[in-house]
Amino acid sequence: MSKQKKRQQSSAEKVSAQQNASTPERSVKQSKKKRPPALKKRQHPNWPLTALAGAGMALTLYLTLSVWLGDTPLYCAEGSSCDIVQQSRWGTFLGMPTAFFGFLTYAALAYIGFKVRSPERHWKSAWTISLLGVGYSIYLTSVSLFVIDALCAYCLVSLSIMTVTFGVIVTQRPAGMKDFSFTRWAGGTAVMALLVIGGMHMHYSGVFDPAAGPEDPYLKRLALYLTQENAVLYGAFW
């Protein structure tokens, strides 16, 4: 009887050992099943994003070349609302036409739409750049309405293109991004955009460069008076 009990005990120990050995394998298999599948690379360019960015590039390149060549854009005659906006201090940034920075923004979006195939990097970079573009366009439009008191048709078209682009990016968010919180991501990028636009506003306010700030009202009135009177300066230099 004692030998039989020992045999039963040893067989039971073997069964429990086998069960314990199989438990880690099962846990590993279960953990593998719980992991989200890796996002597949895009097989083709993001044509909606690329097309919208291409349209924005064409518009801003035309405006930039018009400034550099000294030409007047179509429907932007001297003294018109468009001309007033273009000639304001918001018409340039860091010595370059504002449209040139719009061109760089659209060019970056076109590159992302055509070349970047990693779904997560594609969406995050396109979201960030288009959000900055929308924020800056809204800022300039608000300045045109409430400060300059004039609207530029080209600026409104650019705002429309950038808004539609951002809307497309929002709808294209890939599902299954690892450790991704949309609320945290949207809030963080919105704060970043506000800081960038706030820095630009400080530039236009003359905080960093007084020459880029508001004009002296006396000097502005004097210049307008001399222009209306067709004043000519005569002088000599030795």
Task: Give a written overview of the molecule.
By secondary structure, this protein is an all-alpha fold. The protein has a single domain, classed as de novo design (two linked rop proteins), CATH 1.20.1440. Helix content is 69%, strand content 2%. It has eight helices and two strands, in the order H-H-H-E-E-H-H-H-H-H. It has a two-stranded antiparallel sheet with strand order 1-2. Helix 5 runs antiparallel to helix 6.
Summarize this structure as a short list of keywords or feature phrases.
238 residues, 69% helix, mainly alpha, de novo design (two linked rop proteins), two-stranded antiparallel sheet
Largest sheet: 2 strands, antiparallel
Number of domains: 1
Structural class: mainly alpha
Q: Which CATH class applies here?
A: Mainly Alpha
CATH A-level architecture: Up-down Bundle
Instruction: Tell me the overall shape.
Output: elongated
How is this structure best summarized?
69% of the residues lie in helices and 2% in strands.
Summarize the topology.
Elements: H1 2-34, H2 47-69, H3 81-87, E1 92-93, E2 96-97, H4 98-115, H5 119-148, H6 153-171, H7 182-204, H8 217-228
Antiparallel strand pairs: 1-2
Helix pairs in contact: 2-4, 2-6, 4-5, 5-6, 5-7
